[in-house]
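Annotated sample (chain length 178).
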Amino acid sequence: MSLVSMQRVGEAVLPRRSVQDGHSLQPGDPALHAVTDFTREYPVTVDAERQIDDALNDMINLGVRALLVYKEHRIVGLITSYDIQGERPIQFLQSSNYTQHRDIRVAHIMTPWDALTAVEWRTVQLMCAGDLLALLDEAGLTHVIVVEPDRQSASCVVRALVSRARLVRQLKGLRRAG
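Output written by the structure step:
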């Protein structure tokens, strides 16, 4: 075994997640197989003050389409690639004193915590993957946060995140293989 100097390696990035992230699912499989459970995987987060183009580059490098937004060690919202690449930056510039795209921060266009929709962990435990997809479709959501009551306080724990795109890929993966 030998150690390698990081000066020799150069810059480093986190591994990109593949399209096959997660295994193939059938609609009747437990929905738990379709969530990114933060007790098993680290959540991908972004500081509320990060510039939006930098946040989008983070998403691209990490192979995700949404980031939990934090400020002072608290989750304060969610931002998606759709938020950054869509109308929100333009709307923000039109309704603010800001004039430059480069001045837009994640906090300016994210969906704030109190405007998010969540599903409870115990509900996800009882659902199947097909029902979870139907829930996302009916609500018109690309992502949904899964929350669980915190036994030590009156707050909740962000337990997981569900990505509609990932769930669709997992369900379609079975059809391609079969």
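Annotation: The beta strands are 36-37, 45-47, 66-71, 74-80, 111-112, 118-120, 143-149, 156-163.
Annotation: The CA atoms of residues 32 and 125 lie 6 Å apart.
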